[in-house]
Design brief:
Elements (H helix, E strand, L loop, with lengths): L7 H9 L3 H23 L2 H20 L9 H22 L22 H19 L3 H12 L4 H8 L3 H21 L7
Helix pairs in contact: 1-2, 2-3, 2-4, 3-4, 3-8, 6-8, 7-8
Length: about 190
């Protein structure tokens, strides 16, 4: 029996029509090329894993929002997303100081805050408190993935292994956690700036 290769465009259409397995086929079909491309730029397996996962989060978001323009060029489109995320990674890391992963992650540990005055310090504490409170409102599975990714700086592969779910499930939970956080922030008109 001859195996028939379904074209990328058909798989994208099937995914958009609710066939989640079509995305898995696309990821499996192109993962080696995309992974190798990212690795050739960053030369670090952990960073490559993270950029690879972030690439497919962006792919899923763009597809779900209906912003993917089908021209039969799925792989070049994904490679462009990966390339942009690699550039973002280098921009972030050239500007931001390194921090050790010993304790709980706080975004403010990587920002220059040596000259915080009392008012800024109060606002900073309020923002951190608001974020922690909002996270507590998430469903348990989404909260777990979000905390592991954002506060424990774990890759989606590590999260998948720790929670016993597939990488796609972990990606989905992260996506829904972010969507739900936005909803809560908008509903309660919470301002998260310092």
């Amino acid at each position: 029996m001859k195996k028939i290769l379904i074209q990328d465009a058909v798989l994208v259409k099937n995914y958009l029509n609710g066939d989640e397995s079509a995305l898995s086929v696309l990821i499996n079909r192109h993962k080696q090329k995309i992974y190798s491309f990212i690795y050739s730029k960053v030369f670090d397996r952990d960073i490559t894993e993270d950029v690879f996962q972030d690439t497919f989060i962006k792919v899923i978001k763009t597809l779900k929002l209906g912003k993917y323009n089908e021209e039969g060029k799925f792989l070049p489109w994904v490679m462009r997303i990966a390339h942009n995320l690699v550039i973002d990674h280098f921009r972030r890391n050239s500007r931001m100081p390194k921090f050790d992963n010993a304790g709980e992650f706080s975004i403010f540990s990587v920002l220059s805050d040596s000259a915080l005055n009392a008012e800024k310090s109060i606002i900073k504490n309020q923002v951190e408190s608001d974020v922690r409170r909002i996270i507590q409102e998430l469903p348990e599975d989404q909260k777990q993935v979000l905390v592991m990714r954002m506060y424990q700086d774990m890759s989606f592969k590590e999260i998948s292994e720790r929670t016993g779910v597939s990488i796609n499930t972990a990606l989905g939970r992260m996506r829904y956690a972010l969507i739900n956080l936005r909803k809560v922030i908008e509903q309660h008109n919470i301002v998260l700036t310092n």
